[in-house]
């Protein structure tokens, strides 16, 4: 399980293939986790912090306990998913 923040305001995701075993390829959504950053430098810092081992462990624990209203969306190959970082 790997968590990632997008650095774009609007993101389009089209899954082509899903795993046949293990994880089902779900998209984990954390509503209103962070605001849009006005500076690219602050955005890069956010991404570096989110990619740290400690932050990843915190996200996994929060997901297991379904904290912050986390939503798990099962992705289907060929479907278009649009989401934004606000």
Explained architecture:
The strands form 2 sheets. This protein has a two-stranded antiparallel ribbon. It is an alpha+beta fold and 86 residues long. Helix content is 27%, strand content 19%. The relative contact order is 0.36.
Explain the layout of strands and helices.
Elements (H helix, E strand, L loop, with lengths): L9 E4 L12 E4 L10 H11 L2 H12 L6 E4 L6 E4 L2
Keywords:
alpha+beta, 19% strand, 2 helices, two-stranded antiparallel sheet, globular, 86 residues, single chain
Number of strands: 4
- Major beta-sheet overview: 2 strands, antiparallel
Order of helices and strands: EEHHEE
Which residues form runs of ≥5 with pLDDT under 50?
Answer: none
Helix proportion of residues, in percent?
25-40%
C-alpha geometry: globular
β-strand percent reads 15-25%
Q: Could you tell me how far the N terminus lies from the C terminus, measured between alpha carbons in angstroms?
A: 22 Å
